[in-house]
Amino acid sequence: MNPTKVACAMALCFAAASAAADIRSSASTDVSVTELRTPLISRLPNPDFTAALPAEQQQDGLTMDWLMAQPAPEGEAEWQCLTEAVYFEARGESLAGQIAVAEVILNRVDSPLYPGTVCGVVKQRGGGGCQFSYVCNGKTRMREAAAADLAGRVARAMLDGAPRLLTDGATHFHTRHVRPGWSKRFDHTASIGAHLFYRQPAPRG
């Protein structure tokens, strides 16, 4: 990535009510309709984490300044899997766009419809493909150091319990230039950068 673009991206902050411009696209997530029959189980933010945020951020979420002031991120396999997913699905997006993708993955972890771990969700296959296209493409090396560092910071904060304020429980997203069939049936919850976010509808009966 061009150093100037990296510097611009690193200067962005996000608020829960808005997101930055469309920069580049990544692949949509897909899932068969038959898998979507159980209500989403939302994970509550870690109260200790939220209390550690400055007062003005406890309702508005993370900022770039706060993230960059934290120690260099590290973690176990779950952190690595979330870091890679944020990097490959949203590294060209604003901070809000990257956090929104992390929210989708963690919302799936909390749902009984999907594997109960981040790595399980990210690597899940079905319907002849992958839920996240970079997995099927065999991408594992994060070549852009600044983008990988930011993705790791986002992953670390979200795994540690940062509040999920952007996507209203979304479990799916796709880029603006595609329109998967399920998008007509699911509740549209947010539009952030190049992505549109959706939540499965409440089950009937």
Descriptors for this entry?
Arc Repressor Mutant, subunit A; two-stranded antiparallel ribbon; alpha+beta; 205 residues; 8 helices; 37% helix; three-stranded antiparallel sheet
Describe the structure.
The protein is α+β, with helices and mostly antiparallel strands. It has a domain of 111 residues: Cell wall hydrolase SleB, domain 1 (Arc Repressor Mutant, subunit A, Orthogonal Bundle). 37% of the residues lie in helices and 9% in strands. The chain is globular and about 40 Å long.
- Name of the CATH class of the domain at 57-167: Mainly Alpha
Q: What share of residues is helical?
A: 25-40%
The CATH topology of the domain at 57-167 corresponds to: Arc Repressor Mutant, subunit A
Strand content: 5-15%
Overall outline: globular
What value does the average pLDDT take?
A: 76
**Sheet/helix structural class:** alpha+beta
Q: How would a textbook summarize the main sheet? A: 3 strands, antiparallel
- How many H/I helical runs? 8
Low-confidence spans? 1-45
Task: Just name the CATH architecture of the domain at 57-167.
Answer: Orthogonal Bundle
End-to-end separation in angstroms reads 50 Å
Query: Secondary-structure element order, as H and E?
Result: HHHHHHEEHHEEE
CATH superfamily of the domain at 57-167: Cell wall hydrolase SleB, domain 1
Describe the strand arrangement of the main beta sheet, using strand numbers: 3-5-4
- The Rg value, from CA coordinates, equals 16 Å
DSSP, total strands: 5
